[in-house]
Amino acid sequence: MVLTFARTPPHPAKAGAADGAPFDVFLSHTWQADEQGRDTHGRVERIAAALERKHGMRVWLDTAQMKGNVDVAMSAGIDLSKVVLAFATKKYMDKVNSNAQQDNCLKEFFYASQKRHGYVVPVAFEECMRMQGGWGGPFKLNLPPKQPFDFSTDAAFDKQVADLAELIRLRQRVAELPLTVSPELRDLKGALLPTDFDAESWPQTKAKLFVQGTRKWVFDAVDAWAASTTWTQVFVLMGTGGIGKSVFCAELLRRGKEETLSKQSEPGKRTSLLKQASQRLLSRLSLSKAPALPVVAQHFFRHDDDRMSNAKNALMSIAWQLCLTVTGFKDHLQVPTKTEVADMHLVALFKQVVAEPARKVVVASSQRRAVVVLDALDECDARHRMQVLAVAAAWKDEMPDWLGLVMSTRPDDYIPAKVKSFSPTELNTDDQANVADMKLYLKALLQGFVRKADLVPAVAVLAARSEGLFVYASFLEDTLRRL
User: Fold this and answer.
1) CATH of domain 23-176
2) By mean pLDDT, which of 12-21, 220-229, 230-239 is the weakest?
3) What are phi and psi of 325, to 5 degrees?
4) For residue range 420-444, what is the model confidence (pLDDT) as tens digits?
């Protein structure tokens, strides 16, 4: 058996110092012909060449790089690779199960599988290995209980290699997840989210700008909507830029402490639906004595970040969060391929990755409602804004009654006609409630910088100059911090 490498590190111990892992994939296989008499090594060489040439991958394959001590070369290659593919023929499996301690296939397989569960990706390289029912022994025991990638024939070679390259990238994206994350969730996150996708830091930053006591009237409106016997399931908050919509949504998210959603799994027995994972979304408890409205997923659009302005990324991120916060959601989720996502209309994607699995989750009839927060529609990629509104319009028909949507947007020219059907709550700069909130914000900001006797008139002057926009008042905070 040979391990073929397409590039040679100058020294195994030094290679990859720049990025920590110089090879995308290590290809483990036997040189023995398969049950059909096909040249296993020759097929693997062809795949390696295609991965390199057409997909820009760095492949460790043995024919070029196996030099010096074989054990050192194999272990270094595995250590310096992000993923290991095991090209599973029956003869490869027999070698792994043979207990022949000097067999290279056996040594590679066990060394790689002991590094991290799910690190070895099985590739069915002949018909008899396509189904796990034909597997056995330590080979089966050390692999996750899921079907292998099917490369039993070369009939659609280019497409198979492209799909294999995508699978390798998926495994790379989840390689650094904590060991406590199950292989199933590792695969789901890799399939749902792009590399370095961070949906949490921006709302956490925004929440720090909130001043307790402000926007009580908006929170009351949301609570009344969520408690209504005829709730519409979609709450839209509309206001001009800089009036504080994102800060409100971030605070709504912050207040959404973990609640218990239950489903009737057996007579007299209920199972928790929200998990500890939701605490990552809801990191602090609200100062309010009233129970917070549970928030099970969120996305804050950002015009200055292509990943965060992409509405399809938003839906995939929401689906990933629901996998963590709603028990049973992931069991009903059918993840589309990257190509399918690119070709799908946003409403179709919403139905597949959010609505359908959510409808299949069973909750108790007494369950308190929960929400998804979607902030700053106006910062969504212009190509998808109307489609996001179409998703909102489909929400009540497609989603289960226990899950609503809170969405914020500016009243831009293309939005009002579509949004009016949702009867939006509007933040207007000259509303008395907004002016009162501004004064509370400024009072909190100026305390410690202005004499008590001058506080009220100073607040009045600055409130008038801000013209009801919190973004302008925030400039004062930046100035005070520099004093």
Assistant:
1) 3.40.50.10140
2) 12-21
3) -100, -20
4) 778 889 999 888 999 899 898 888 8
| CB count in 10 Å sphere of residue 266 | 7
> One-letter amino acid identity for 190?
G
Which of 49, 45, 43 lies closest to 154 in space, CA to CA?
43
Q: What is the mean pLDDT of the chain?
A: 82
Residue 283 neighbours by CB distance under 10 Å: 12
Please count the other Cβ atoms lying within 10 Å of the Cβ belonging to residue 166.
16
* pLDDT band (50, 70, 90) for residue 480: low
**Domain spans of the chain?**
23-176, 201-427, 432-482
Alpha carbon 37 to its chain's center? 44
Q: Can 23-176 and 201-427 be said to share one CATH topology?
A: yes
CA distances from 171 to 78, 176, 185, 273 (A): 15, 10, 11, 28
Percent of all residues in the chain with a pLDDT value above 70, rounded to a whole number: 81
What's the pLDDT tens digit per position in 88-113?
Answer: 999 999 999 998 888 999 999 999 98
CATH class assigned to 201-427: alpha beta
Answer whether 92's CB lies under 8 Å from 120's CB. Answer: no
Q: Which two tokens stand for residue 388?
A: 């996001």
Q: What is the C-alpha separation between 36 and 234, in angstroms, rounded?
A: 59
Distance in angstroms (rounded) separating the CA atoms of residues 196 and 173: 8
